[in-house]
Each structure stands twice: as structure tokens, then as C-alpha cells.
User: What shape does this take?
Amino acid sequence: MKKLLVTVLAGAILWQAAVAGEEEARPETIAQGEALAWLGLVDTNQYDQCWEKLSPSFRKEVSKRKWKASITQIRKPLGKVVSRKPKSTEHTTELPGAPEGEYVVAKFDTAFQNKPATVETVILIREQDLIWRVSSYFVKLAALAEMVRRAGRIRGAECLVPDRRIAPGRQAAAQRLTMKPDRIHLHP
Assistant: This one.
């Protein structure tokens, strides 16, 4: 009887360890960790290192100089990060207008000094080397977008990432910082 109990307990422990290992290996878990590490670089103004960790397709479309200027323009008015909590993660193989691939959309509820209620969205793509890299970054900011528009700093409206929804022939014309009332992004 003791041997049976020991065997059952050992089996339960091994099963629990296997389940915990599977949880850690889930694409959502791994990509969310990569997103948080990347956001940490953005939070500490390490924009060169941040750009290096972007997906190669993003870096091909957006120069480091333009990236630094755009991310500074987006993040500076927000102030320092006060808190950030994971909101959701979604693993998918399809995103509208994006090439086929393996993606994770990670959203975070983030409070900044000057904007206490925002949602940051980081889209990661699993590259051929099996590493998750950031391919898009969005900050949802209704009040800030209106403030910037009124100040006349930015005209138009929309995204901070290469937006693959833009037809290849129009990408050069679309390379600009734009804004919608509820979010800011960068089109390559």
C-alpha cells in the first residue's frame, strides 16, 4: 500500500511539473516575457538597444534615426511608467494584412505619470531562428491624441510599427507618424 501511495504521489508530482513546464513553454508566456523585456528598454530610453531587438522586417522599413525620433515623440509626453500589468495575450497565425507567420498580441494596462490609463499593445512575430521579436507597438491614448492634434504637432491620424496593411507600392508615401483619436503609431 505504501509503495502504491508513493507511486501515485510521485506520478502526481511529475505530472504537475510537466504541466508547469508546458505553461512556461507556451508561446504566449515566452512572447509576453520578451515584450516586457523590450518595454523595459523603451521605459529606460535605451532606444538603440530597443531598435536592435525589433524584427528584421521592421528594421528594414524604419531607420534607427526615425525610430528614435518617433518613439521619443510618443513616449516623452506620457512621462515615466508608474505601473504595468499584463491585460491579455493572444497567439495567432493570422493578422489582418500581415504575412503568414506566428504572432502573439500582448496587451498591457499601463499607468504613466502624465496618463494614468493607457493600453500598450506589443505584437511579436516568431522569426525563423525561433526567437520572438517585436514587430509592432501601439499606445492607446484618447486624450493625448487630441492634445497633440490641437497643439498642431502631428497631422493626420494612426501607428508605431511597420504596418503591413499598407500596399507595398504605397509604403514610401505612408512613412510618417500619424494618429487616430485613440492611438498613436508609426507607419514605415
Summary: The longest strand covers residues 81-92. Confidence is low (pLDDT under 50) at residues 1-23, 153-188. Strands lie at 81-92, 103-112, 118-126, 132-140, 176-180, 183-187.
